[in-house]
Specification:
2 domains; five-stranded antiparallel sheet; globular
Length: 173
């Protein structure tokens, strides 16, 4: 765990991390002015879909186009959270319309919301009180595969083993 919260190491396909090049990470958004400048450069088509986001271990939000890999957005580094985020313009200001922890590369726990909330508050974005879509990730102790738990059914879709109730995706944590 970092001083801020749990850090998540990339646990996705090794070839995706190997493809990350220096300077290919997402746009660092540490202030309202930086967000305003970043969002002003987005097209209507881009704004119609959620964006890829990570919160770096420095607590700062990073944004990239939706089809970007989270590991690329993070520059290959560890994160405090990762997922997808959408924005909508309301009453002359931008707000977060949807947000999830959906990142199969980092598989962050839903408890990472507090780090996301801090990062969004730092850039003065209106936001929901939590992820609008929570994804529960678990690693199967039997076959070691990563699973997305649906409808509170903590059973591995690959081998049928029971999955733990607590987050366990990264075996090094």
């Amino acid at each position: 765990m970092s001083a801020r919260g749990r850090s998540y190491r990339y646990v996705g396909p090794v070839e995706l991390k190997a493809a990350v090049r220096p300077g290919s990470d997402g746009s660092r958004i540490s202030s309202a002015a930086e967000f305003d400048n970043w969002i002003a450069g987005r097209s209507a088509a881009e704004l119609a879909e959620p964006f890829t986001f990570v919160v770096g271990t420095d607590g700062v939000l990073r944004l990239a186009p939706r089809r970007s890999e989270h590991v690329a957005c993070a520059g290959g580094d560890m994160v405090l959270s990762a997922g997808e985020i959408g924005f909508v313009r309301e009453a002359d200001r931008w707000t977060v319309s949807e947000i999830s922890n959906q990142s199969t590369g980092y598989c962050p726990d839903i408890g990472s919301w507090s780090e996301v909330a801090h990062a969004l508050d730092a850039v003065e974005l209106e936001r929901p009180s939590g992820f609008t879509h929570e994804v529960v990730f678990r690693r199967c102790p039997g076959c070691q595969e990563h699973n997305i738990v649906r409808e509170d059914d903590f059973v591995c879709v690959f081998c049928g083993s029971d999955l733990p109730e607590t987050w366990n995706v990264d075996p090094t944590v």
